[in-house]
Task: structure prediction
Amino acid sequence: MTTTFAMAAFAVLGAAGLVAWNTFNANVWHQPAPAVASFYDLRAETLEGDDFSFADLKGKRVLIVNTASRCGYTPQYKPLEALHNRYKDEGLVILGFPCNQFGMQEPGSSGDIREFCTRNYGVSFQMMDKVKVKGDDQHPVYAWLTQKALNGSGDHKVRWNFSKFLVNEKGELAAALGSGADPLGEEIIAFAEGK
Result:
């Protein structure tokens, strides 16, 4: 009886682990399609409270990531900053959107977030104001990223902190990547290089 219970428990834990692995490592690449609503019509507020027009991103490759200061993936700030420094002069823009919807792992104010990112990781890529990436108050940028009816490429869910979206230089959604996607991995580097 104990062996049967142990085997059942092991099977349940294994299945839960597989679901978690797929959640954080689910990557979807698209054959980019023209967007229904223009990516370049979007706007957001920066961490400093300034208006940021996505029209300024025309002709750039963009990586958008929802961030958090108290997450197991928080150390990804370091490779994201390395990616930014390596490709910022070659047309890559990284936009970080702090979010407190997953495990309440980004509770701080804009000032707290800026201080944390600068002090601990030297973040110099563009950080935006804290937003909601899902639900009733979903920010318009994330509505565009997650709804095929807007982006023309596919429907996606943001499942955890440090999910990444890649938008090509034509304003088309190229990929939705899970939290586990390495910012310095081959696929993201190829995107950064325009390949």
Strands lie at 28-29, 43-45, 51-53, 61-67, 92-98, 126-127, 164-167, 173-177.
